[in-house]
Amino acid sequence: MSEPSFSASFRCSEGCDFRAALTEVVYRCPRCQGLLEVEHDVAALARRSPDEWKALFDQRFRRGAWPLGSGVWGKKEWVYPELALGNVVSMYEGGSPLLRLDGYARELGLDDVWLKECGVTHSGSFKDLGMTVLVSAVKEMRARGKPIRAVACASTGDTSAALASYCAAAGIPSVVLLPRGKISIAQLVQPISNGALVLELDTDFDGCMKVVQELSAAPDIYLANSMNSLRIEGQKTLSVELVQQLDWTVPDWIVIPGGNLGNASAVGRGFQLMMQLGLVDRLPRLVVAQAQKANPLYRAVAAAGGSPRAGLAVASIAAERTLASAIQIGAPVSARRALRALEALDGIVEQASEQELADAAARADRHGAYACPHTGVALAALEKLASRGVVRKGQRAVVISTAHGLKFSDFKVGYHEQRLGEVAARLGNPSMQVPATLGAVQDAIARRFPAAPGGAR
């Protein structure tokens, strides 16, 4: 079977019969204003057997002809089959580590907890998975004569870094709108370094999102936020890669931080497509974790009795300042998509306070991780579900780490130096200043690590 026999197009996610080619500059259904989804010809994909798909994906994974070794483009037929390979803009994204955290699992009373480190990638977050598809699509459009002048996004940091990097590689101008004073220095400097036009607005993310949607009403400014379903197509490969790394077995639980909620939708789409094509025989349960100070999805689901269901209304809120700055979003554009995924995957929505997310990140770090605050939200949700007996021993849980902890050094240092305001650093581990003598160093070691009985050390 040759690759050109596969195809995909936009369709309305709300059930209208609207369709459009992936090369069209369109983000919403013109009839009902619903977001679009990428629809694949599943019947054509099904002509290749599950074992053939697994073998093909395994053969390409992290090796093979460029760019098919990418964790995203190795699954090109499931992402954007008709895109010319010469227009792929790749930073060899995906292939991020899957760490087994045995010590952390034991501390929680569990025995099988994994951390999918999506921040171990080119720009330091999972956003690379979707941005490679979107920027490649723009390169294809420009090659076909579409007059796209620049690609723009609103961001709390990670999206802007990914957009600027991929656009720089493609030679395409990028514009990023950031909420002034609400992202880390590491996140701010990334798009600056990659040559983006960086505009800091005196508002929050939701305000930036409003402006960028108005900006992208002009056809020559292409919208790069996750309401653009091309992003979701790249991010859904996370689900496939995760199962691939577990030797094509499905975990019992996936726990993921939720802000604009495109990631939750993407995880659901990935698992549902694998189920349709027979690569897996069951679905995991999905947990979307939100910061308590930015929790519109949690509030909506709790008000409805705790059961997520498609069609549930998610009211916008004014998100408060949270340590988990990348998910400080009060009006998530992908809420309806996320609810569909949660319903399909028998999902749960949980929240975490500032204290809970900071302690959870520190606790995982004590067992070898280096968790960003957003991953801390997901870890805290897992800890709460484990304490209630919802997640149990004998079940496999995978927490999605969305960004590299090094992007949030201020959060890390602030915790261990007791400088995070309302957060008490229960697991703080500040450095010690001691005299430059052997005796002083030995005394410090003895205080921290006293000799075991019998003299064993």
Task: Give the ordered list of helices and strands.
Answer: EEEHHEHEHEHEHEHEHHEHEHHEHHEHH
CATH topology of the domain at 98-124 and 232-416: Rossmann fold
Structural class: alpha/beta
Query: Uncertain regions: pLDDT < 50 for 5+ in a row?
Result: none
Protein described:
With 457 residues, the chain is of the alpha/beta class. It has a domain at 98-124 and 232-416: Rossmann fold. Helices cover 36% and strands 13% of the residues. It has 16 helices and 13 strands. The strands form three sheets. Strands 4-5-13-10-11-12 form a six-stranded mixed sheet, sandwiched between helices. Strands 8-7-6-9 form a four-stranded parallel sheet. Strand 1 and strand 2 form a beta hairpin. Helix 4 packs parallel to helix 5, helix 4 (127-143) packs across helix 8 and helix 8 packs across helix 10 (262-276). The mean pLDDT is 95.
In short:
The chain is α/β, with parallel strands linked by helices and 457 residues long. Helices cover 36% and strands 13% of the residues.
Task: List descriptors.
alpha/beta, 13 strands, Rossmann fold, 4-stranded parallel sheet, 457 residues
Describe the SSE topology.
Blueprint: E1 8-12, E2 19-20, E3 36-40, H1 42-45, H2 50-60, E4 98-100, H3 102-107, E5 113-117, H4 127-143, E6 150-154, H5 158-170, E7 174-179, H6 185-193, E8 197-201, H7 205-215, E9 221-223, H8 229-235, H9 237-245, E10 253-257, H10 262-276, E11 285-291, H11 296-303, H12 335-344, E12 348-352, H13 354-365, H14 373-387, E13 397-401, H15 409-416, H16 438-448
Parallel strand pairs: 5-13, 6-7, 6-9, 7-8, 10-11, 10-13, 11-12
Antiparallel strand pairs: 1-2, 1-3, 4-5
Helix pairs in contact: 4-5, 4-8, 5-6, 8-10, 9-10, 10-12, 13-14
